[in-house]
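Following up on my earlier thread - several people asked me to post the actual chain instead of describing it. Fair enough. Here it is, all 271 residues.
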Amino acid sequence: MSNMKITFLGSGNIARAIIRGLIANGTPATDITAADPMQSARDEAEKLGINVTTDNRAATRHADVVIIAVKPNVIKKIAKEIASSIGQKLLISVAAGIPSQLLRGSLGLEAHIIRCMPNTPAQIQSGITGLFATTVISKTEKKIAEKILGAVGKYIWVNNETDLHAVTAVSGSGPAYFFYIIEALQKAATQVGLDENLARMLVIETAIGAAKMTLTETTKTAEQLRREVTSPGGTTAAAISILEQGDLAGLLSQAVESANARSIELARDIT
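Reply from S.P.:
Thanks for posting it. Predicted structure:
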C-alpha cells in the first residue's frame, strides 16, 4: 500500500474502522482522505490524522483507490458527481445492496468496481467481508482490495454478485443473531440464580471459547463438537432436547431466508 492514495467517500463507522485498520497496518494517515458533507463526521475522521474535505470530485481526482461508504439512498448522486474524475481507478463499494450495474450506469461500463459486504465486528478489526469483483478487475486490484478489507478482519470472494445477498443474510446480519442469543442466555442465567455480572461473563466467555474451538478444531464439524459435549442423559442433552423441540435450527433457517429475501427486495427498490 506504499504511496497509494486512498479516498473514502463517506466517513461513517465502517469507513473509520477501515481507516483505523489501514493505519495500524502501516498506511500513512497522510495518504488517506475522507470526503463527507457532515461536519461531525469529518471531525471524527480528522481525529485519525487523515485529510478531510467536502469535495468528492477533488478527493476522487487525487486518489489511486476510491472507497464509496455512503448510504444507499445517496449513491446515485455521488456516482454522478465523481463520474468525470474516477476514470479506471479502482472503486470499492461498501454501499449495501447497490449492484455494480447501477454504478456502471453512472460511472461507465468499464468502471473498475469491487463490491464488498463487511460486518459490524470490522469496527474492532474482527470482521468478515464478502467481496465480489466485476469482470474488468485485475489480480493486482484484487490484492489491493484484500489488503484494504483485510485491515478489518478476514475476507472471502464470491463468484456471483447475487451471492452477496446471502453474505448479507449470514454475516452482515449475523452479529445481531449472536447478540440476540447472548442476550437470551444472559437472561436465562439470571433466572437460575446468577447475578447479572456473572451471567454476562459466563455467557460471553463461553461464546468466545466455543467459537475458538470451532475455528481451531479443523478436523471436526460444529455438529461433531456439539455431540462430543452432549453426554446421553446429561445436562447438555436435556438442554439440547428443549432447543430441538422448539426447532431452533428451523427458526435460524427461516431467519436467514428472510434476511436474504429482504436484501434482494431492498436492492430492487434502489434500482
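The radius of gyration is 21 Å. That should answer part of your original question.
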